[in-house]
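Hello again,

I reread your note about wanting to compare the complex against the isolated chains. To keep things tidy I'm splitting this into two emails, and this first one only covers the full assembly. Below are the input lines as submitted, including protein chains and any nucleic acid or small-molecule components. They are followed by the predicted structure of everything together. The single-chain runs will come separately.
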Amino acid sequence: MSARRERALARETSCPALPRHVRMHFDEVRGAWALLSPEKVLWPDEISLAILNRCDGRTQAGAIAAALAAEYGADEAEVHADVLAFLQDWSDRMVVRL
Amino acid sequence: MNETEPGLPIGILAELTHRCTLQCAYCSNPLELLKADRELGTAEWISIFEQAADLGILQVHLSGGEPTLRRDLPDLVAALARRGVYSNLITAGVGVDGPTVERLAAAGLDHVQLSFQGARSETTELIGRLRGAHERKLAAARAVREAGLPLTVNAPIHRRNIDEVELFIELALDLGAERLEIANVQYYGWALLNRAALMPPREAVERQIEIVEAARAALRGVLAIDFVAPDYYARYPKACMGGWARDAFMITPDGTAMPCHAASTIPHLVFDNAARTPLEAIWRRSPAFEAYRGTAWMKDPCRSCDRREIDFGGCRCQAMALAGDPAATDPACSLSPLHGRVLQLAEGDAASEVETFRYRRIGAAAEPA
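Full-complex prediction:
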């Protein structure tokens, strides 16, 4: 029996990535980014896309939030909370790996 | 949705072959299985996949029968990968060894869905009628993991294995799967023929739902569990294929393009063949696709129902099978006047002591039971 995984918790130091079964794809026909997964196609909105594009497995969640806050001129504490909540939700749904 | 201009399709279920290593009695393939000489060739499938990508298809599920019996499978996967189309291999895993998986991974395969007929070896052997099948599936799962490919364990559920749901969850965790599908059998094709031997009793279904809900909560972020409800016992029907010709369709081994697996059971429908008619023309204008697209074809109670664009009246083929009218409300729906009869059918089948399967074999349906 292999070692069992545990639910990952989103932290400032998490380095999120897309899991192997999920792939970003620019759909030329619709002119939009799609997130492809085994049974579903998700169409991330602009903010989700901005986060997902930074999920490279190296950048920490805190740095992603700081970059987004700067880019959108938004309150940094608020963006941190939003980014962590997003990552936790998407990790729980197995479409982001923390 | 605009009735005359359909949206763009997202997915295709490509049944590459009806040949199979197993003989599962719950198979949704038609009773009249196609022999190998009717299958499309490599170039025909690649042309279909190229057209699919042009049309906006984002996912192709490579299924069968057993798709790995096609020796050109890596070429077909590579054709999809070249266009960025997500490829999902739906396999029973028997004969899927390390080198096979390596070739598919190298060709760009995105995901493997591996079926287990039982969580116990003896159940897998009984349902699929192949000795040693379970161990070969375990080996296939390991080969998938070793190749670094993501894995979904698919568990088709019926009376003979519904008590193994907890074990299926354990199995999926042990195999390191990302996803588990607890998919109650849909009664089409061979499954419909074997319904009396497969239908679970309501109490077992309810217990199963409790187990799945508890496991989903406990395994949040660890294992995604998809649940396909047993629709004879459901309150509302499933949105079959996400709605008839709405965002997905299927292609049979000989190229017949159909909105649903079982659409050939609706006698008046005329199908196009994707090897001869351009895919875009099929999607937009195939009379079989247009027959039940959207909501204009609906009768009451569907026509005036708030859920008409949620479940699209359920499955047209199930309406055909159970109500004798493909435009009727799917009798799996509690709003159908026939729903009570469907429940009686289910309960009668579940209480029947039928144990004998009519196993899925090419030519077997015509044999006496």
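For quick reference: The interface with chain A takes residues 8, 10-11, 54-56, 58-59, 84, 86, 88, 110-111, 113, 148-150, 152, 173-176, 178-179, 219-224, 226 of chain B (CB under 8 Å).

B.
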